[in-house]
Amino acid sequence: MDIAVVVGSLREGSLNRKVARALELLAPAPLKLREIALSGCSLYNQDLDNDPPADWVELRDSIRPADGILFVTPEYNRSVPGVLKNAIDIGSRPYGKSVWTGKPGAIVSATPGGFGAFGANHHLRQSCVFLDIPLLQQPEAYLAGVKDEMFGDDGAVTDEKLKKLLSRFITAYAEWVARFAPGG
Questions:
Q1: If you placed Cys at 21, which of 42, 82, 98, 155 could pair as Cys (CB 3.0 to 4.6 Å)?
Q2: How many CA atoms lie within 13 A of 146 on its CB side?
Q3: Do 45 and 30 contact (CB within 8 A), yes or no?
Q4: How is domain 2-179 classified at the architecture level of CATH?
Q5: Any long-range contacts for 16-21 (C-beta under 8 Å, 24+ apart)?
Q6: What is the C-alpha separation between 60 and 54, in angstroms, rounded?
């Protein structure tokens, strides 16, 4: 199952990108996670819907074939980063042609702080309801206290508690996606 991973951070060494890589390494065999690049996306402008820029077409085409969507995001000012919101808007337009519709999704939010990026996670959940992305409800993944030293050079999780939590989450997500597969 092809899973599009949308990381809400542009920073190459971001903790959320490390979490996404760790999830890729922990994913059970039926899942194949691939990150969707957001760094080249121009800002959404409805005036361009009839003749969209190449970067919008590329983003939409990279999401369309996915069997599921996994969001991994930090929190900026109690909400999602602008780059993530922009990607959501690009993928949801033009109206009636959303690439998100019906794809089983999940959200992981991570921060070195103490609240696990709760605000971003819940703002993103609100958008997903409108986008008709059926979201995994349990287990939830609000990762607080995430640090660089929890990951090895290869991207694997070195912190046993975090590894256990991420393993449980990605296994539950694999089961969630399977429910939406043909014959699932």
A1: 155
A2: 29
A3: no
A4: 3-Layer(aba) Sandwich (3.40)
A5: 16/72, 16/73, 16/74, 16/108, 16/109, 16/110, 17/72, 18/146, 18/148, 18/150, 18/151, 18/155, 19/72, 19/108, 19/110, 19/143, 19/146, 19/166, 20/70, 20/72, 20/108, 21/151, 21/155
A6: 10
- The pLDDT tens digits of the residues spanning 61-82 come to 999 999 999 999 999 888 899 9
Q: How far apart are CA 119 and CA 108, in angstroms?
A: 12
Containing 4, the helix (H) or strand (E) segment is strand 2-7
Query: CA-based Rg of the chain, rounded to a whole angstrom?
Result: 16
147-162: per-residue pLDDT in tens?
999 999 999 999 999 9
First to last CA, the chain: 12
Strand order in the sheet with 2-7: 32-36, 2-7, 68-73, 105-110, 141-143
Query: Do residues 133 and 103 touch, judged by C-beta distance below 8 A?
Result: yes
Q: Which of 91, 175, 101, 95 has the alpha carbon at shortest distance from 131?
A: 101
